[in-house]
Structure formats: structure tokens, C-alpha cells
Design goal:
single chain, TIM Barrel, eight-stranded parallel barrel, two-stranded parallel sheet, 16 helices, 14% strand, globular, EC 3.2.1.86
Length: 478
């Protein structure tokens, strides 16, 4: 099959990691705004430490981020220079509905995104919009408990309708939720969940996830009704799970972990809870409370395509003696056959091809890789140039694996958006020094710097990859 001539090459960001302008034009407070940098960050995003206000003791990197709020025209122009066909971005929920419960949307916020989308089209770039990329208004968390409440569905759908109607002529590609399976690993970040003593935490996670799945299915139906040309996808954090050994116990554990990842997509792509999940949830007392119409809603609201992030594969073992891998929210055994990034993430290009084949075999729907990249420190020389050969090597090998999946295995691929086209704040660590971009941004972990944008070596490399529909990654030389 190979990559089609209209394959969508581009890059991906999230509003809370790049936008800044957290209090401008009427924007309200969101869960992502109260996630601090530093040692408390992980406890907050997991919902284990309550943080619903911004104090003077912490730094909150999303507040300024890289200030794309004021620089989006410059940044999109650079994306256009690279030859982007698509730009995956997200909406800051509280820029449209500051508290989440308002009757009317914030017009200033709507105008901002309209200008962003129109700027994309000026450069021939198709917007791919994530409706909810780890955004939940703090007001809705305080009043309703975030996605533990079914009332969140109505607030989310009001946001969706506002977006689908306002941007009917500007946006055709939508994602309902970012990395929906992260609700199990970072529930405050993923769903605005906070836990107190006595809470049945796992049960609350699956109840919140059910509410998001219903909301997603209803949003798909709504998008198709408002504009039949809309294409709506789901999105999850992917990465095949390998058994550490051929011990049957390890193989079984790997299968269970894969299912844990696929569960949400099974529902969004097939329209029902899979048998294995139903049995497991019932056995463990985690089955969500459902309403009579939920089965019908899920069945009618299946997605048009499957999108996912891929940074690495995972490895599991049932033996206590096996070394664990650090640096990711997903627990994993250390795979002795792989090299690791400076943040402890395994580097596995072939794993991307394996993952693509597994997902396509499972769903037989078009796939879209919407996040893939290497977080690494950059060291500009005296002229500000960044020779990020490690990033080029990582992307080259992963893009070649992706092309093999399409050309040799017949996987139907819509596009590829590298994470991220421009340096931004890391969602997991809160660091600025953990850089992903083709464009260097002169800011450090404390927010110091000029904010100046500078093309890295990888900028020109990716420009050639796009210009040759991927062939430069396979045959080009640097």
C-alpha cells in the first residue's frame, strides 16, 4: 500500500504545554494550571495531592509555557516552512468556557482559535484538533468532582457543539480525548479526579472513564450530524507490551497489560465493552454504573479512525528480581535488548511497527500516529545552532518503521505528527529542558530566556522528509 500522496505529515502540541496566556481574554483556571513543576508534580497529576489553587511556593510551567498565545503566527509560519500538511493542536477548555458551566461561550477565546485555524489554512495546513487534551475546569472539579460525575458529559458536549458549529468550515479532523487510557495512571491530569481516604480509587477511575467514553460516543454522533465531512478519532497512549521471558506467566501478564491499554479503544472502535473487560471489572468489583441507553450510545458513536502516541514499547515480568525501567508513568521491566533515553525511556523503532500491526489487525480502521518523538537536552553553540543528531536518528528509525508497516504490512495510515514541532513544557516532568522540537525556544526550566525561536538541524531534515513523502528518512544522508 505505502504512504498515499496525500499522507498528512506534521507535528503535534497541546495547549497547556505551549500556549501560556493562562489568564488572558477571560480564560478560566484549569487542572493543568495547578500542576506544579518540581517534586510534587507526580503526586498532583496522580490525584494523590490536592492542588486546586496556585500558591506562592511552586512554579506552574503551563502559565507562560512558550507563549504561543502571542507567537502562534510566527510558529505556524515555521511549520509551513517545514511543509506541514497537518498541525495537531488542542483547545484549552477554559478559554471557551472559563468555568465550564456558563450558558454562553467566551467570544474572545473563540476568536483566538479562529485566528489560529485561519493562519494554518494560509500555509496549507489542515488543523487536527484535540477537544480535551488533559483539560478540566477547576470549577467543575470543585463542584462536581470532575469526571467522576455524569454531569460532566453535558458540559463537555456543550463545548463540542460550540466548536463543531463555530469551526464548521475550518476543521474537519477531531480527536475527542487525548490518551484516554492515562486516566488509570494520572487521574487528576486525565480526568480531574482527586482522592480522599476511603475512596475506592480504581472504581472511581473506571466510572470516570465510562463517562468519558459516553461523552466521546455522543460527540462523534454530534460531529457527523453538524458536518458529515467531519472525521473523528479516538486517541490513546500506545506501545506494545513484551513478555520479559517465554515463561507462560510473563506472556499472560503481557497480554493483560496490552488489554488494559486497548480496553478504551475497544469500546470507542467497536462500540461495546469487550468480554474480557466485563468479566474482569465484575470480578474485581469495578464495573461502572451505567444507564439504560449507554449500550446504544456506545454502539452508535464509534470513531472513524484510531490515533495514538508511541514513544516506546514496554516489558513485563512476574519475577521480583527483574530490574524496572524508570522515567515513565507506565510501570515496566527493563528490556535488556534496548537502549534508553536520558529520561529512562526505552528506544524501540521496531516496536512502532509491531504496535501499528497489532492495532490495525485488531480494529481494521485507519490509523494516525499523532505523537512520536525524543525528549532530550539541547546545547546550542555560540551562534545558537542546535545539532540534534540524536533526535534525527530517533525519528529516522521510527519513520522508517512506520513506512515498513504501510508498505510491507498493508497498514492503512492517515498521517504522522511528530511530538513536538517546537520545544514546549513536558507534561510528565514539567521540564523545559526535556526538549522535543525541531524549533528551539530560548527558555529554561525557570522560564528565563528571550523566547526566541531558532531552527535546529532537525528542522531542515524533517523538511526534506516531508518533501519526499518520507523517502529522505530511508535514503537521505546528512
Amino acid at each position: 500500500m505505502g504512504l498515499s500522496k496525500d499522507f498528512l505529515w506534521g507535528g503535534a502540541t497541546a495547549a497547556n504545554q505551549c500556549e501560556g496566556g493562562w489568564q488572558e481574554d477571560g480564560r478560566g483556571l484549569s487542572n493543568v494550571d495547578v500542576c506544579p513543576a518540581g517534586p510534587d508534580r507526580e503526586a498532583v497529576i496522580r490525584g494523590e495531592q490536592v492542588s486546586l489553587v496556585c500558591d506562592g511556593e511552586h512554579r506552574y510551567p503551563s502559565h507562560e509555557a512558550i507563549d504561543m498565545f502571542h507567537h502562534f503566527r510566527e510558529d505556524i509560519r515555521l511549520f509551513g516552512e517545514m511543509g506541514f500538511k497537518v498541525y495537531r493542536m488542542s483547545i484549552a477548555w477554559t478559554r471557551i468556557f472559563p468555568g465550564g458551566e456558563e450558558e454562553e461561550p467566551n467570544e474572545a477565546g473563540l476568536r483566538f482559535y479562529e485566528e489560529v485555524f485561519r493562519t494554518c489554512h494560509e500555509y496549507g495546513i489542515e488543523p487536527l484538533v484535540t477537544i480535551c487534551h488533559f483539560d478540566c475546569p477547576v470549577y467543575l472539579i470543585e463542584k462536581y468532582g470532575g469526571w467522576r460525575s455524569r454531569e460532566m458529559i453535558g458540559f463537555y458536549l456543550k463545548l463540542c457543539r460550540t466548536l463543531f458549529v463555530r469551526y464548521r468550515e475550518l476543521v474537519r479532523y477531531w480527536l475527542t480525548f487525548n490518551e484516554i487510557n492515562m486516566i488509570l495512571h494520572a487521574p487528576f491530569l486525565g480526568a480531574g479526579l482527586l482522592f480522599q481516604d476511603g475512596d475506592e480509587r480504581e472504581k472511581l477511575k473506571y466510572q470516570a472513564a465510562h463517562h468519558e467514553l459516553i461523552a466521546s460516543a455522543l460527540a462523534v454522533q454530534m460531529a457527523h450530524e453538524i458536518n458529515p465531512e467531519n472525521r473523528v478519532g479516538c486517541m490513546f497512549a500506545a506501545g506494545s507490551v513484551y513478555p520479559y521471558s517465554c515463561r507462560p506467566e510473563d506472556v499472560w501478564e503481557a497480554l493483560k497489560k496490552d488489554r488494559e491499554n486497548y480496553f478504551f479503544v475497544d469500546v470507542q472502535a467497536r462500540g461495546e465493552y469487550p468480554a474480557y473487560a466485563g468479566k474482569a471489572l465484575e470480578r474485581e468489583g469495578l464495573m461502572p454504573v451505567m444507564e439504560d441507553e449507554d449500550e446504544r450510545i456506545l454502539k452508535k458513536g464509534t470513531v472513524d479512525f484510531i490515533s495514538f502516541s508511541y514513544y516506546n514499547s514496554r516489558c513485563v515480568s512476574t519475577a521480583d528480581s527483574v530490574e524496572s525501567a524508570e522515567g515513565n508513568l507506565f510501570a515496566s521491566a527493563k528490556n535488556p535488548y534496548l537502549t534508553y533515553s536520558e529520561w529512562g525511556w526505552p528506544i524501540d523503532p521496531l516496536g512502532l511497527r509491531i504496535t501499528l500491526n497489532q492495532i490495525y489487525d485488531r480494529y481494521e480502521k485507519p490509523l494516525f500516529i499523532v505523537e512520536n518523538g525524543l525528549g532530550a537536552q539541547d546545547f546550542p553553540d555560540e551562534n545558537g545552532n542546535v545539532a540534534d543528531d540524536c533526535r534525527i536518528d530517533y525519528l529516522k528509525r521510527h519513520i522508517c518503521a512506520m513506512m515498513d508497516a504501510a508498505e510491507l504490512d498493508g497498514v492503512d495510515l492517515l498521517g504522522y505528527t511528530a511530538w513536538a514541532p517546537i520545544d514546549l513544557v513536558s507534561a510528565g516532568s514539567g521540564h523545559m529542558k526535556k526538549r522535543y522540537g525541531f524549533i528551539h525556544v530560548d527558555l529554561d526550566d525557570e522560564g528565563n530566556g528571550t523566547g526566541k525561536r531558532m531552527r535546529k538541524k532537525s528542522f531542515g531534515w524533517y523538511q526534506k522528509v516531508i518533501g519526499t513523502n518520507g523517502e529522505w528518512a530511508r535514503y537521505g544522508a546528512e
